[in-house]
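Weekly puzzle thread! Below is a chain. First person to post its structure in token form gets bragging rights.
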Amino acid sequence: MKIKTTVFFFAFLLYSKLDAQTADGNAGINQANTTVRGYFDAGTNLMYAVGAILGLIGAVKVYQKWNHGDHDTGKVAAAWFGSCIFLVIVATVLKSFFGL
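Winning reply:
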């Protein structure tokens, strides 16, 4: 019985604290939403830049394997190409998903 009373007491304190801060909490959430949306374009451009760098590194790796006559060149090329395409698709899908 003592545990139930303690849990109820803490739940009541938490509820009263949240109820008192609702106006400030909503303003903080809206400010965070605006800030994150402002950084989203820069983050998307960063993902495109990382994809380009990975593409260049992958091209060099595939070229080296091709010149050495390795048999798994196609597999390595598909992996590097797939990672670059994944970054571009993720950035585009996130943009469209959040309506930015």
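Puzzle host: Confirmed. Bonus trivia for everyone else. The chain has three helices and no strands.
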